[in-house]
Structures are given as structure tokens and as C-alpha cells.
Amino acid sequence: MEGKASIDPAVACMLEYCEAEGISTSLLRAEDMKPCPIGSGKSGICCKVCAMGPCRLTKPDQVGLCGATADVIMARNLARSIAAGAAAHSDHGRDLAFTLLAVAKGETPDYRIRDTQKLMSVAQLLGIHTDGRQINQIAEEVANRALSAFGQQRGEIPYISRAPRKRQEIWRKLGIVPRGIDREVVETLHRTHMGNDQDAEHIMRHALRTALADGWGGSMLGTDISDILFGTPTPILARSNLGALSKDEVNIVVHGHEPTLSEMILTAVTMPEMIEYAKSKGARGINLTGICCTANELLMRQGIATIGNFLSQELALMTGSIEAMVVDIQCIMEALAPLANRFHTHLITTSPKAKIKGAKHIEFDEHHALDIAKEIVRMAIDNYPNRRQTNIPNVLDNMVAGFSHEYINYMQGGLFRGSFRPLNDAIIAGRIRGAAGVVGCNNARICQDQAHTSVVRELIKNDVLVVMTGCGAIACSKFGLLLPEMMEHAGKGLREVCEAIGIPPVLHMGSCVDNTRILTVLTQMANEGGLGEDIADLPGVGIAPEWMSEKALSIGTYFVASGVYTIFGVTSPVASNPEFAELISKGWEAQVGGKLEFEPDPAKIVEKALAHIDAKRTALGLVEYDPDRFGQSGDRNIEEWLETPVEARPGGARSLAEIEAD
Ligand code: MSK
Question: Which pTM does this prediction carry?
């Protein structure tokens, strides 16, 4: 990578340490190992679906040994990545459904249903009868109905009915409503096997269906069941960055994506017997923090600090302060194992689906969750006396997280009058220009957090309300962007709305699975009225400025299939084939209303996003966006008004305090 590796001062500090100690990290390896220009789709395309290849196509009209053309190879590669991403998210959702089933059957004494209201609303969405039934009976049927959505062979997965009616009709007309979550993933692998589906447009249409099985299937079930089991998030204050590691407590870091074990570890670390045990080993207590989306899960519901996003995972170990890093699934670098061995850290894998050579494996089983969590916590405590010199950067920021779609509804009117009317009205009036979902990973090929933060700053400056998830949200949390104070940097209209409701202009909505919360928000906005009838009508965009994972491709594709213009940064896997790039941009737009584009320059991403938002405003017949129309109300004006001498105020009006002082 050229230029700075990260804008995060904590990371910069740790990289200096790496250099001094001669330790390699992904950020440094990115300098030594350049991406393959053909495999990346930049200057050609590579097919390796059979043993006659890999065939590398680098010249115009060149074909593979079997005659496969560049567009078909590109479609196969991209569709397979989308299927892998959909499989990862959905398998996560499936495991949560199994946990809910075990809870309902009374097989897991350590878990309980924390949000019965959410259970009821999910039951209703799934068409499950609730009147006069016990909570456990309803939960069991919800879990079984969720599980059947994975293996279903015909018909439609249940949450399709949650989308705006017009959107459902588009999907049905195109024949892309998922029949079953697993079925669509398997069919992608079948279609892209050597010598099968060999029409790029046809392959990519099924990729849309597969991604929908993720967004409106596995992921959405994952989010809903997590809320049922662990609580639906509401705003919560928390800390962010490596400075949240403790110098004199046992540090346990959870990393990956699942809330199941990490919630139990949280229970274990707050038990008096565990705290006493930590003290007996010379520590002041136990400090639980997280990385990546396991962190986001604990943050959203419990306010547990995040110490970093994807590219900070190796650096966290080098602080020498972590007694145990407990990992579950996804986005966990293999490099952690040799690194942990250089320090005193126990790297503990816990999923039956994810082992790492060199790590300790303590397999998680929800039937004995607390016992396993206590074993892990004890192991971390026992490791505390082995701690040597620590190197924790003194970098810390605060954030407000916890914006579920239920809370966003509630904050616009309270318990009885909650709705999306105020948000829609603010967009219609032009106070808010539009909305953007800025999500996704870090990528070692570009400066960490720079694209996320610059895109978000520009959007709010231009009166665009931003919702975030995943590592993008963590990036912004490290720079104070998730605090209400950031409204100072928002456009005048957006600031008025944030002041009136009391929210930051950037809302943290959760982990990468929780991108489905954004789908629900978009649906509620479309259903509320005044902004068209469909998600594709809304003045909104999706952006993944620093993406790297296959899950990001699946998320981007289900947003496109749901009608959203989605822009990916960093690099384009379709750069060498402009016709194919057109197929998933204008081609998809003509079919589903959303399009997928790749644009590495963050400034151009913002330009494209704003142009799209304005075009949607025009199509809806809304007033033209004017950055100076608003700003006459709000806290700042009250302050200015109070500073104005009474005689210079219109009508000589006085505040209550001034009247009382007289
Ligand atoms: S953890 S998928 S690096 S957002 Fe969800 Fe972060 Fe991307 Fe993993």
C-alpha cells in the first residue's frame, strides 16, 4: 500500500512498535505482496473451476480451454463469492435458531428469552398463532419455522412478505424470490460448476436470488433471534479503541461474529467469584472488550467497549496486555496464532466450524454455555501472572451505539406515536437530503478507516443521515463520529433534526448481520408514504468504502436486489470487463431498481451518492435540496438569541430566566 497504513493513532503507535520489534502484520505484508492483477479482475480474469486450468484470460476475445468467455468466468467467480457470503451469514442465523429452539425446550438453563415483545412481533411476521399460548411454545414454533426456511425447497422464504408490496412484485416477476436459504446457495455452486450455466446475465440473476436469501432470510433471522435472546438494542454509551484495554485488570477480548458465547462470557466476568479469583492473582478485576462484530453484538446491547475493527486485531495482541482472545467465526486472521505465541496471550477458538492451528480449542456448546464461559475466564485469569511489559496506546474515544430499527421508530414519537413520519417529512421538506448506509470492513490495501470517516463526514455535512454497521461503524466510533456532538459538523437541516430528536447524525445499527435492520428501516420509510412506494424510490444509497469480504459482496448484492444504489470502494473485481460492469450496474438497475458499482476514490463515492440522492428527490417531485434553507431553529439559535441584547431581539422577547431575574 502506498501512503499511510491507517489514520488511527492507536494503530500508528502499534505499527511503530512492530517495526522496532520486527513483527509482521497484514498492513506490512500488504506492502510485500501485491494482489494478483488477473485474479483480482483488474487486468484480466482467472478461471479455476476445473483441473484443465487455471485459465488466465488477459487479451480481448480470449477464451478458456473449454471456450468459457471472460464475462461467464467473471459471473461465476462473483456469484460464488456472493454465495459464500450468503452461506456465512445464514449459517450464523441457523445456529441462533438452534439456540432459540434449545432455550424454548428448556435444554439451556443459562439462556432465557430476554425480549418477549420481539418474540411476539417475529411470531406475527412468521404467521404463528400467539393467543393464549405459553412463551416457550411460541419460541419453539418460531425456532422451527426459522429452521425450516433453510431447508425449504419450494415456495417463498417467510420474510419476503416483510418487504414493500411493490418490491415483492418485482422479485416475483423476475423469478428471484428465494425458495429456501440453503437451496439458493447450493444452486449457485451447481450453476457455476464447469460446463453448466454459461450465460453471465443468467448466472448473475441467480446471484441476486442467493443474496436475497441472505438479506431477507438467514441474516434477518439472525438479527431477530439475537434480539429475542439477548434483547433489542437501545442507545447506549460506550468506549472505543485500544485505550479501553486495562493496565491492571485481566483483559479478555472476544472477536468474530456470534453473540452466543460472548454474552455468556460477559455473565461470567461479572460473577463475584470470578472477580475475587482475578484479585487473588494480583489483578484489579476483569475487563471484557471486543473486536469486529462480536464486539458490535456486545456493544449494541451491553455497552461493552470495542478495541478495534478488522485491521486492529493483530495489533491488539501486541499490546501484551491480553490474557485471552476468544474467537468464534468469520474475519479472524490465521496470523493471530503465531502472534499470540510471541506474547502470553491464549488464543482460544470456540466454534466447531473454525479451528486455527496453534490456538487452544475449547468447543462451545450452548447446553453448557456458562460452564464453558467460566472455564475460559478462569484460563484467562490464570494467565494474568504471565503478563510481562504492556504497551497499550493511550487512545480512547466515546460513542453512542444501539440504534435498532425499533428504537429509530420509537425515537420519532415515543411509545404510542412512534413512526417514520418525522423522518419522511424531514426528507420531503429537504431538511434531510437523503439517507446512506455506510457499512463494511477494513482492507489492508488502503489506509485503514480513512475512506469510512471521510465519506461519512462529507455525507453529514451535506445533510445526509448516515446509518452504519460492522467495522465501518467501529472506524467512525474511534473518531467521535457516533456522538451527538458530531451534529456540529452536520449540515444545517440535518443538525436541526438531530437536535430535535437528540440523536447523533451517524447511527450505529450493529454487526454485519444487522444490515438487515437497514432493510427494515428502508421498508418502513417506503411504507410510511410520501417517498414513493418502494425502496428503489427512496433518496438513499448503500456504501462499502473499505470492503474486503465475500459477506460484503452478498450484503451489497441484497441491497441492490432490494432497490438500492450500492457503491463499493477499494477495488473492482469486474474492472477488466466494462460490459460485465455495465451488466451489474445499468443492467441490474433496469431489472431491480438498484445497481452495483465500484469506485475507489472516496470523494467520487460521495459525489455519486449525492447525485443519486438528488436524482431520486427530483423523481419524487420533492423540493430541490438547498443547504441554506434551514438552520433557523435549533439549539445553536437559542444560544445566539440569548447572546443578543434584549432590545435587539424581535419584539424584545425575553427568556423565562431573564424575566425571573427581573
Ligand atoms: S467483521 S465482514 S471485516 S465488517 Fe463483521 Fe468487519 Fe467486514 Fe468482518
Answer: 0.94
